[in-house]
Amino acid sequence: MGNHQTFILMAIKRAKKSAQNGGYPFGAVVVKDGDIVGKSNIDDQEFDPTAHAELSAIRNACKNLKVYNLTGCKIYSSCHPCQLCLGAIKWVGIKDIFYAMDKNDAQAIGYADDIFMDDSVVLSKTKMQDENILVFMKNWYAQRNGQ
């Protein structure tokens, strides 16, 4: 069992190890009841723009615990999570996020995830209606929920 400082230092250690191995300088750990249950995978970044430390640690925690929901867990990250990671953190039920650097710290050294706030980046979204997928999804959810 560890404390907040121990876990944030573990996230920073993973960030340093990732950078030393040619990866990005980010690290994260997921903690449940004072034990580390998930760690970011520093070896799984090549050609994967979604291989963020937080997502990797979440995947690892879910696999280790054999669950899809991490309610009751905490996540520790070397840097404030980006919008992609924040979405995943919310999706899996994690409510407590601890980080070593905030957005201002990151911006001060030249790193920023401003793409999420950039209104000049316009996405084209088109709904392509298909009755087959609606029926499939309805049946899948009913079966999953025992209806």
UniProtKB/TrEMBL annotation:
Keywords: Hydrolase, Metal-binding, Zinc. CDD domains: nucleoside_deaminase. Pfam families: dCMP_cyt_deam_1 (PF00383). InterPro entries: APOBEC/CMP_deaminase_Zn-bd, CMP_dCMP_dom, Cytidine_deaminase-like. Its EC number is 3.5.4.3. GO terms for biological process: purine nucleoside catabolic process. The keyword Zinc applies. The keyword Mitochondrion does not apply. It is an enzyme of class 3 (hydrolase). SUPFAM superfamilies: Cytidine deaminase-like (SSF53927). Residues 2-123 form the CMP/dCMP-type deaminase domain. GO terms for molecular function: guanine deaminase activity; guanosine deaminase activity; zinc ion binding. PANTHER family: CMP_DCMP-TYPE DEAMINASE DOMAIN-CONTAINING PROTEIN, CYTOSINE DEAMINASE FAMILY MEMBER. This is Guanine deaminase. The gene is guaD.
